[in-house]
Design a protein that fits this description.
Elements (H helix, E strand, L loop, with lengths): L1 H52 L6 H14 L3 H36 L7 H20 L2 H10 L3 H26 L2 H26 L17 H15 L2 H8 L2 H37 L6 H34 L9 H27 L2 H26 L1 H26 L6 H21 L1 H8 L5 H26 L1 H19 L1
Helix pairs in contact: 1-4, 1-6, 1-10, 1-18, 2-3, 2-5, 3-4, 3-5, 4-7, 5-6, 6-7, 8-13, 9-10, 9-13, 10-11, 10-12, 11-12, 11-15, 11-16, 11-17, 11-18, 12-14, 12-15, 13-14, 17-18
Length: 508
């Protein structure tokens, strides 16, 4: 049953996201063409600011999920309803806090931020409406439903609704941007779709969990975890979402537009990997809740192999093809970055992907305090180095800072897993393995440059570029699997698990 649910969660998360990615490519292209580099730059910065505004959630969703693991493992409906009721109360409080922050940030942007001519009012309206759109799920039930479904290993229900709404939202954004060429139109679309998402989630979950209800003796004990989770959320934001803000402050909105075009692809590839990681978290969470710790090491090794294969396949394909892809996608010469920038993008992505199995184990075990400390250190490294390096080295300095922060994060996580979770792991061997993988990837990136130049100047059209990248990805993946199978028992076990997942999906 666990295997079936993992399969459903991953498939429902990943497959629709591929469609979202395709539509997203069209959306970015439309934004650049119809509202311009400057308008798109402001839109991307607005999204980053909104991300920071919602730090007021303080990772509360993760606390609710962790609190629900045990009741769902024990099928204790009474405890589930108490935690559900408590989380509803807290989400509403958080919603009011966020609303206040939105008001304060809006005033700050209006009086103190130096918008270029003609962008002040439209940017502010866009910020306010989109921010309020996301609040619907806090005052409504979507946030709580998502946590319940995640803990029950039935996140695929939420994934289905969310992804359909995301696809609808992106399609409508493309249409209204072409028709109206305004940031305000984007905001209105997002508001309408978020309201629709709330309505659909209520109907779906009420049918699935007829026994789920609010009770008087609500359990709000999960709030105790929020202190650590808040720092974690803030740290992740500083680690992953500070670059655009630093670029607009030290360089220009156009630089942000160029950076976010590449980063859209990086985020897309990373998000697919992250969705595989979520399946791993639920799996480890279930193992720990049932006190089956003896299975954890085997599971970790298998997931570690999986993400190594993903990292090499995705990042080599990215390195070889991203400049050619941007050339046919955006079609602007100033958007073609140097090869060194591409390597730094790829290295940061590679480090982030191989980090996911470590993160899954730590999160599933509920070691939020350790994670908080790690993220705080890494975020500090990223912010300080980014500010120091962006002026002399521009975008390359920013990317190098991010890669170094991810590198630090990997070794911090590895230490806590060895010391507190899976003590049987050989830390020295694991450290050597990670260092070897990173070094090998960098060497490969340098060696394949002649192939990258060939692809870049081949003159592929859009579909030709996609086809060539697809072939490269398949070939690299097959080589990875063959090499790993020959030297790793965990890889062979992983393939067996994969066959089991496929059978589980067919039966379901």
């Amino acid at each position: 049953m666990r295997t079936k649910k993992i399969a459903l969660n991953m498939v429902s998360d990943i497959l629709p996201y591929i469609i979202i990615g395709v539509i997203g490519l069209i959306k970015v292209d439309v934004l650049i063409k119809y509202i311009g580099d400057v308008g798109n730059g402001y839109y991307q910065v607005i999204n980053q600011i909104i991300t920071y505004v919602f730090i007021a959630q303080m990772g509360f969703s993760d606390a609710v999920i962790y609190s629900l693991y045990k009741p769902f493992a024990e099928k204790n409906k009474g405890d589930i309803n108490r935690i559900y009721s408590g989380s509803r109360k807290i989400f509403k409080i958080i919603g009011w806090v966020i609303l206040l922050i939105i008001a304060l940030v809006s005033l700050g942007l209006y009086f103190f931020y130096g918008f270029e001519d003609g962008y002040r009012n439209s940017s502010l309206i866009c910020f306010i409406v989109i921010s309020v759109s996301y609040l619907i799920s806090y005052f409504g039930k979507t946030q709580t439903y998502s946590a319940v479904l995640s803990a029950a290993q039935e996140k695929y229900i939420y994934n289905l609704v969310f992804n359909i709404m995301k696809i609808l939202s992106d399609i409508l954004i493309v249409v209204v941007v072409i028709l109206f060429k305004s940031l305000e139109a984007i905001a209105i679309v997002i508001f309408i779709v978020k309201a629709l998402e709330e309505m659909v989630m209520r109907m779906v979950v009420r049918r699935k969990y007829k026994w789920l209800k609010e009770v008087e003796d609500a359990d709000t004990s999960m709030v105790k975890m929020v202190k650590d989770l808040a720092w974690i959320q803030l740290g992740y934001l500083a680690l992953n979402n500070i670059d655009a803000i630093i670029l607009v402050a030290f360089v220009s909105p156009v630089a942000v537009s160029i950076y976010t075009s590449y980063n859209f692809i990086v985020r897309y590839l990373n998000e697919i990997s992250s969705r595989v990681e979520r399946g791993a978290v639920y799996s480890f969470g279930n193992v720990f809740a049932k006190k089956e710790d003896d299975k954890a090491e085997k599971l970790f090794k298998e997931f570690n192999v999986l993400f190594i294969i993903i990292a090499f396949s995705v990042c080599i394909t990215f390195t070889l093809g991203i400049r050619s892809f941007v050339n046919v996608w955006i079609g602007k010469e100033n958007y073609i970055l140097g090869y060194l920038s591409i390597i730094l993008f790829a290295v940061a992505l590679f480090l982030n992907i191989i980090y996911y199995p470590l993160l899954a184990v730590v999160n599933a075990k509920g070691l939020f305090k350790d994670n908080k400390n790690h993220i705080f250190i890494c975020a500090t490294v990223n912010v300080v180095l980014s500010i120091l390096l962006v002026k002399p080295f521009g975008l390359n300095g920013l990317l190098l800072a991010t890669a170094l922060a991810f590198f630090v994060n990997i070794f911090l996580k590895m230490n806590v897993i060895k010391n507190k979770i899976i003590e049987s792991i050989d830390k020295r061997r694991l450290a050597t393995e990670y260092l070897g993988l990173i070094a090998l990837f960098i060497i490969i990136c340098v060696l394949i440059k002649p192939l990258e130049v060939f692809i870049l100047h081949k003159g592929f059209g859009f579909m030709g570029c996609i086809l060539s990248l697809g072939i490269i990805f398949i070939v690299v993946t097959l080589i990875n699997v063959l090499i790993m199978c020959s030297c790793s028992e965990s890889t062979r076990n992983l393939l067996k698990r994969g066959k089991s997942l496929i059978k589980g999906l067919k039966k379901h």
